[in-house]
Amino acid sequence: MSSRRYETAADFCKLVGTPDLLEYLGIGPDTPKEEAQAKLKARRKYMQGMQSNPKYKKEALFLIKHYSILSGSLEDPADYLTDSLLRAESVHLPVLEMTIKGVLAGGGLSSDQEAYLHRNATELGISDVSFSKLIDQLCNESGVRRPGNGQSPRPSVLPMRQQSDDFYKLLRIDRHATLPEIRTAYEAKMRDTRNAPQSADNEALLVRLDLALSVLSDPMARGQYALSQSRTGPPARARDARPGEIETAPPIRPRGTAPVNAQGAQYSAPGEGVSRLEILGKPERRLTISSSPVRARITIRNGGERAMTGRISSDQLWLEVSPHQIDVNATTQDIQVIVTPSQVPPGVAKARVSVVTDRGEKGVIIFEVKRGLPAWGFGVGAVAIAIAAGAAFMTLSPTKYDLDLLIDPWAEEVVFDGQSLGPGTAFHLHDLVGPTAVLEVKHPNFKTYRQEMTSEELQSGQHSVELELNREMDFKPNDEHHRTSVNQREASSVVGDLRPAFDRCLSANGEPKSVLTGSIRIYITQDGLAAGLTIEGSRSDEASVQTCVKRQAAAAKFDSLVDGDYASVRYDYDVTVPIKPNE
């Protein structure tokens, strides 16, 4: 039961922008549970009178509705804090992973390097247990042997609370500083520190400076760091008594500068803050090509509060992107990617698609392209007719045609006439000659689709497959189920891939221009498959929406759980229903 309580507590802390309930109430892990619960009760009483205040409405409603669960999470403040710290730790693990991979890229790992990585982990608030587990995993993947006995220098079980150090403040640079600006600031700060009298504080500062450079100079790690900063948020002050309105007002983020386009025009949009570039889905993607153009899609999102402008480009001529500019009026935008096979060099080729905002943010998606079979031809490629009079032959070439396969939802494997096309939702087959072919579509959560396609079906140009669920998707955790966690980076990537499908389900047949908000929580069982979900918010009670969302969620594939009975991930949706073309 405690895991469900802690999950609710984590949602509440995210809402109010505090690391944990203990910080929210201004108490420590040694506080008796009676005192902790009394403080929460006093806070609820105060919030009951604040429900009409827009500044506190969400906090008040959540606290009142889930008070008993939040109070239950404080039955053991120390145990709760352990869970909270481990949750925060999982957010920073991707940053550490990027740093370790950078060191291992040199082909070895010395004791000094491991000590350096361990200090980085400590600065990020990651426990020695998690550090050792991660570095062992990455060393095994890279074929690198850990020095000594592989033990971390200072064993500890729990991560430290995240330090308040801000890498940008540490280097005295703007959050949108360019790489040269970051390096210049780092070198200047390092000189000042090394010239200062030697001390333990200076040694610690050198470690933080190295960590700041390694994170901020890597675009992916920098993005993960920005995400982790926004998730954890600053510690909230304790508010036991009812102070004045100015003192109780939540902190307001500083007003950012509106983005400027290439012509120097400044965009302004309602609200405070700045724009924020988010790349949905995986940063590395693989495509298999043959002789026909292959299409893919990248989805970007503006997670900030102001309009976002910028440009989109590819570093290879054989991979084209469209459009080349970020849509200033769009919160979410799809970028079309087209690969021209005739221009792709032999072997495995790579291309980088860069999305750069006018504020200096940059996202990179790497496409790895390789050639598959030269043609999806099958059957007899030509008919030879013998001339009875002699040894002369003539060859009659049959008509060839193309076929688009559309699979809904995503399939784990598509097999066409005995040849695996791999996973996906859309496939283009060309130079088909018939007369028949067998199509199989497989996914563990769906019934296997199998059909022998006739010559007429093959010539139709398009064939659609709608997979049928083979499970009810009704799993709900109870007190007997033990909750565990999933890899946050991998889970975010999977949910990012599902987002367009979820948004289509929610907006279908909705009132045009209406705004839909809410959350979808997916429950994952030991096999890494979605087994159930809950929807809260706009249109969540409609059967058609629930059926559509369940089908799309069932297609998701996460890593298998190492321990525990289930894990969960959440997608918070904010969708504006588009206007239909005929309206």
Shape: globular
Overall pLDDT level: 75
CATH first level of the largest domain: which class?
Mainly Alpha
- The poorly predicted ranges are 150-165, 230-272, 373-397
Give a topology summary.
Layout: H1 2-16, H2 21-25, H3 33-48, H4 57-65, H5 67-73, H6 77-104, H7 111-123, H8 128-142, H9 167-171, H10 179-195, H11 200-216, H12 219-232, H13 245-248, E1 277-280, E2 284-289, E3 294-302, E4 310-314, E5 319-322, E6 332-339, E7 349-357, E8 362-371, E9 383-386, E10 393-396, E11 401-416, E12 419-432, E13 437-443, E14 446-453, H14 455-458, E15 462-466, H15 488-507, E16 515-525, E17 530-537, H16 543-554, E18 566-576
Give a short overview.
The protein has 583 residues and is an alpha+beta fold. It has helices at 2-16, 21-25, 33-48, 57-65, 67-73, 77-104, 111-123, 128-142, 167-171, 179-195, 200-216, 219-232, 245-248, 455-458, 488-507, 543-554; strands spanning 277-280, 284-289, 294-302, 310-314, 319-322, 332-339, 349-357, 362-371, 383-386, 393-396, 401-416, 419-432, 437-443, 446-453, 462-466, 515-525, 530-537, 566-576.
List keywords for this structure.
Immunoglobulin-like; Helix Hairpins; 16 helices; 5 domains; alpha+beta; five-stranded mixed sheet; about 575 residues; four-stranded antiparallel sheet; about 35% helix; globular
Task: Describe the fold and architecture.
The protein is of the alpha+beta class. It has 5 domains: 2-75, no CATH class; 84-232, Orthogonal Bundle (Helix Hairpins), CATH 1.10.287.110; 277-371, Immunoglobulin-like (Sandwich), CATH 2.60.40; 383-466, Immunoglobulin-like (Sandwich), CATH 2.60.40; 488-576, TolA/TonB C-terminal domain (2-Layer Sandwich), CATH 3.30.2420. The chain contains 16 helices and 18 strands. Strands 11, 12, 13, 14 and 15 form a 5-stranded mixed β-sheet that branches. A 4-stranded antiparallel β-sheet has the order 1-3-6-5. Helix 1 (2-16) crosses helix 5, helix 3 (33-48) runs antiparallel to helix 5 (67-73) and helix 6 packs antiparallel against helix 12 (219-232).
